[in-house]
Amino acid sequence: MAPDRGDYYLGADGAPAEAPGRWLASPDALGRVGIERTDAVHAEDLRALMEGRRPDTGEWLRSAGPDGTRAGGIDVTLSAPKSVSVVWALGDPSTRAAVEAAHHRAVDAVLGYLRATVPTTVDASGPAVAGELHAAEFVHTTARGVDGRVPDPQHSHVVIASVERRDGAVAAVRSRPVLRAAREVGAYYRAQLAHEMRGFGYGIEQAGNDERYFRVLGVGEEIERAFSRRTEEVRRAAAEFRARTGREPERGELRALAVRTRATKVPQTRAELDRAWAEGARSHGLEGVPPRAGDAAPRPWASRVAERVTERRAIFDDRELRTMTLEQAPGAGLAPEQALSARHDLIERGSVLALADGRLTTARMRALERDIEERFARMGREPSRAMGPVERDAAIAEVEERLGASLTAEQRGAVVTLTGPERVTALIGQAGTGKGVVIDAAARAELAAGREVHGIAVAGRTAQQLGKASPALAGRVRTLDSLAAAIEHGEITIDQRTTVFLDEAGVGDTERLARLVRPIEERGGSIVAIGDGRQLPSVGAGGMFERLADAAPSAQLTAVQRTTDPAEQMAWQALRDGDPAAAMAHYRARGELGFADTRTEAVDRAARRYVELSRELGHDRVALMTDASNAEVDALNLRVQALRERDRELGGESVGQPGSGHRLHAGDRVTWTETMPVAGERRVENGARGAVVALDQAAGLRVALDGSGREVAVAPRELDRLRLGYADHVYRHQGATVQRAVAVTGGWQTSREGAYVEASRAREGVEWHVARDELSGDDDAARVDQLAAQMRVSRADEPSLSQPLAHPARAPGDPGQAMHVSRLAATPSPQPAPAIGVGIEVGG
Questions:
Q1: pLDDT tens digit string along 362-386?
Q2: Range 737-770 burial, b when 16+ CB lie within 10 A, else e
Q3: What domains sit in the chain, N to C, each tagged with a CATH number?
Q4: What is the pLDDT of residues 672-696, one digit of tens each?
């Protein structure tokens, strides 16, 4: 594999040049595979090694696989944080040399760590670490300019061509374990680089929205963004191409996109490039290299690690702990090996607790779970609400009159349970079973008894849907965070006559639940928790709903009301019960399971189908979902917008969003990604949807909100609170009911819970779109089996209390020792291994 040419590199005289390359393996290891010239990487040597041949004789080094081919290598990208690139770009020759040396030492260190800790090969005993990695580094130091602006400093590619096993045999590198370890390996690289930069006297601070990265003090975020333009412009151009055409750009088209987005005039010499960088930094207030003014105040490393490691899951393994210790090391002034060694102190001091099954949790998370559970248990034993049959029967009658139909016996029984005397009750409701009418009746009974009620949910959109499905709560709904803050600030009083209805409680993470349950329990209030442990879990560490439901009087709803189609009801139940093969057979037989060759084609087909259905039914009656990344949400939204723009369904003028670069037209559907205050009116909740009804380049947009039709103004400074609202992640659709649904699924993020939610949103069915290249199998029938296998994988949250401690003496009195151990969730499937030559991004 030859290094790329001058589109990426400028030589000392400004002319295009090939990237220099250096071997990262020892001369002895290279000699054993026939590489004699080890002072630099020669293209023919690397190419032969990747083909599995000895460069000197052409003999095979590696045996062929079952299909007769030999896998090539993998490309690991190590990107320095942008602030380090800025220091390099603005530095004099000695500063640049020092930064380059620091980067090379970090690359060397991380490759040694990867070799020693990641099983990149297989021996007689199974997956194993390698004795040697045949790897080479190529440094990208500049990129082309964008729109007349300066080029950016860049990154390194480490090509791992093959491995030498400990028995001396040469084998292909296993890419999947490297991919799974990418975050950990990237964290090690950054920790080592931060240690090197600190050794030069530069101050270091944690950076990034989730503080996974670091920044050199004196280099602000604006300067970092200014030096990141090239990558963003090319990415944006590729996204616009996909939106226009519905497919990926081919190699020649991608090169043409890069040419169109590059500057018309780029620096021709190193001196011109240096001046351009200096002027760019000066325009953002940085005169030359930031001073070596010492470090930022050291961060409390141990508490930060213990807090951050349970942000997503209550239970984690040692790899996750290693990753977090490395990510938090720069701000604490620790070298990577110091941080890895110090993690053992967290266990010895009891900040991190070992569970009986070999996994880990934190003492803080364990205490939060225990506190919530104990409070729920006390509330479940304390009768305080006085609710008579008169109020309850009258409430049920009001709801039946509103519906024009009778509640089922199951629903009536649930109302009785929820309005019982205990301070806490629970409703376990399967998807589409009519939870809204049960909540409505229970809330009406509470109001009739003279009590104060509040309806809440984690997501703003879900809270709004709760108010719509349960009119007794209309005007009384808000997000969980909003209610907790209002209680803390004294804006809402909680006492013995207050009941809080918590919808989609399974999505509530432990941190949020603790913030809510504590004041309600202490002040005598009551809670009705509504949820379903088989639907999507919380984004943060959670999994407490089913345990809490066990601790309280609870009712269950099982009869599906949302659809009257018996076959559809059976498919939903099959997905819920972990039998996706039966469900997918149903959808395939109905022609509602469609295959495309690639994921991009699946996105295009889903977007086209959504446009057809929305024209027939209306946008608010059709859901377009994906279980993949926000990038795919954007791709779906942009493709739908392009199709509507092509068919002249949108206004000709548009306004641009400063952050995303997307443009919004009159007629576009939008959704809020964060709450937005509205002067003199109710704020707009995160997740609210609407249609753009007017726009003005100076004043911004006016949006008519779904449901109420209320029009709100969105000023230019607030445009980044919006995104296009045709498609969304399946998480944002939990709790919603529509007429038809379209879902893109089948990737590594597909899960049992996600598939169940996707299937059960629509009264009249869901259409699935999947990609053949993401599913193994020789034909579509085999791919359906693979899809079903992915849909059997559970990503349900698991609280730490579901496991006893490995060392109970370290936490005397911990109730987990005597509690039931729940069934473990299946381990999530790793992301598919990349194809040959596809890079793995592990840097900063």
A1: 999 999 999 999 999 999 988 877 7
A2: bbbbbbbbbbbebbbbbbbbbbbbbbbbbbbbbb
A3: 21-292 (no CATH), 301-354 (no CATH), 366-557 (3.40.50.300), 566-791 (3.40.50.300)
A4: 999 899 999 988 988 899 999 999 8
